[in-house]
Amino acid sequence: MKIDLNSDMGEGFGPYRLCDDEAMMKIVSSANIACGFHGGDPDTMGRMVRLAKQNGVGIGAHPGLPDRLGFGRREIPFQADELRQQMLYQLGALIAIARAERVAVSHISFHAAMGNMVNRDPLLADLMMDAIVTVDPSLVVFVTSGSEIEQAAKRARLKTLALFLADRAYDAGGRLVARGLPGAVIKDETAVRARVRKFLLDGSIETIDGGVIAMPARSILVHSDTPGALELAGIVRGEIEATGATLAPAAELAD
Questions:
Q1: Which bin fits 233, alpha (ψ -120 to 50), beta or left (φ > 0)?
Q2: How many whole angstroms separate alpha carbon 59 and alpha carbon 128?
Q3: Residue 181's CB: how many other CB atoms inside 10 A?
Q4: What is its EC number (predicted)?
Q5: Phi and psi (nearest 5°) for 174?
Q6: Which of 103, 164, 191, 250 is an S-S bond match for 107, by CB 3.0 to 4.6 Å?
Q7: What gap in Å lies between CA 86 and CA 92, rounded to an integer?
Q8: C-alpha–C-alpha distance, residues 103 and 58, integer Å
Q9: What is the DSSP string of 27-87?
Q10: What is the pTM for the complete model shown?
């Protein structure tokens, strides 16, 4: 079995960095690169693209809301077309920077509040997917299984890749537990290892209330701003390899 391991990267700004991006890039198979709104800047984006190229890692755009202080995790009541333009601005910037390095952007993964807003609104999801098609119909869209983004991407005939968030708790309905709630972010290495092993062996995960649900995904995400992210990513990769699976970038696995 092939599986993707990805992380949201380049989310610092100027001299400020959230994690050791150089080391993380040696662990993952796909990188979701912040495009300057919730995090990142042109120089950081260029550095991330070059690192991905050097390590054979798939390059993805990670657009978010223009809210550095809130790290793109606070919803702002933009109109639908404003969100569309913000996404296009960020995607276009990364495509240009990647093209200058003679590599291509292969996927897109919405960040935090922007993704939440799109996932709640089928019309907005269709608007966003149609915009992506006009830019590059070969782009893979990272999704959560059964989400509005997944359904809209399929309507737009875009390829998708379903994610399992190794460091985030899920409820019985398969939804992410809100970050402000106890236990929403999973930092314990033993717990992450057990969750990933269960997912790899039988395609299911334990929910925050102790139940078990199916998790139909082909990609595992570790957030780079989770405490101990580098160690957690190494644990996830170790579990992938221990089950006999191999890493592959998103572009190879999408359907």
A1: alpha
A2: 20
A3: 11
A4: 3.5.2.9
A5: 80, 15
A6: 250
A7: 10
A8: 10
A9: T-SEEEEE-SSSS--HHHHHHHHHHHHHHT-EEEEE---S-TTTTT-S-----HHHHHHHH
A10: 0.96
Give the tens place of pLDDT for each residue, 80-104. 999 999 999 999 999 999 999 999 9
Cα angle vertex 25, ends 229, 100, to 5°? 135
d(CA 30, CA 239): 17
Q: Which of 139, 158, 147 is nearest to 116 (CA)?
A: 147
Query: Residue 92 carries which DSSP code?
Result: H
130-173 tens-digit pLDDT: 999 999 999 999 999 999 999 999 999 999 999 999 889 999 99
Here the tokens at position 144 are 């959560």
Long-range contact list for 131-134, CB < 8 A, 24+ apart? 131/84, 131/87, 131/88, 132/87, 132/91, 132/108, 132/156, 132/158, 133/157, 133/158
Cα pseudo-dihedral 127, 128, 134, 135, rounded to 10: 160
